[in-house]
Amino acid sequence: MSIAFDVINPATEEVVRSVPLTTADGTDAAIARAGAALPAWRAVAPADRARLLRRFADAVDADIENLARLEVANSGHTIGNARWEAGNVRDLLNYYSAAPERLNGKQIPVSGGVNITFAEPLGVVGVIVPWNFPMPIAAWGFAPALAAGNVVVLKPAELTPLTAIRLAELALEAGIPQDVFQVLPGKGSVVGQRFVTHPAVRKVVFTGSTEVGKQVMAGCADQVKRVTLELGGKNANVVFADADLERAAATAPYGVFDNAGQDCCARSRILVQADVYDRFMELLEPAVKGVVVGDPSAESTEMGPLISAAHRDHVAAFLPDGAPVAFRGSAPDGAGFWFPPTVVTPTSPSDVLLTDEVFGPVVAVVPFADEAEAVAMANNTEYGLSGSIWTSDVGRALRVSRGIEAGNLSVNSHASVRYSTPFGGFKQSGLGRELGPDAVDAFTETKNVFIDTTF
Ligand code: NDP
Question: Active site includes 220?
Answer without folding.
Answer: no
